[in-house]
Sequence to fold (125 residues):
Amino acid sequence: MRRQVALLWGGVAALLIAFSPWASQFAGGLWGCTFKSLTGIACPTCGTTRAALALARFDVVTAMTQYPLPTVGWIVFLGGGLTAAAMTLMGRTPPEIPSRLPGWARAAVVAALLVNWVYAIATGV
Fold:
């Protein structure tokens, strides 16, 4: 089962990279943030689409300045998927992803989300 997930993850990552030149053509059909339009304050995910579109242009610097946490998440997702698929194709078993994070890791994730949200509000994303 782990091998199938690794190949699926790698396939999705490869497709996202392969279709990245056309990502901006689909962006016009997306709607704006409802939370921000109602409150005037950026939501915790405001800027994620713009960061993903910058990554699709392979502009990592712009993506990091627009919204750092989702940018890092996308890079980890893509790199992890390609690595897991490559390991599987080479006959190695990819490492198992833990089903439950320890308390310190969960606290770190919450802190990172809050810091990133404050960054979005402070920069006017």
Q: What stands out?
A: The helical segments are 2-18, 23-27, 34-39, 48-56, 60-66, 68-89, 103-123.
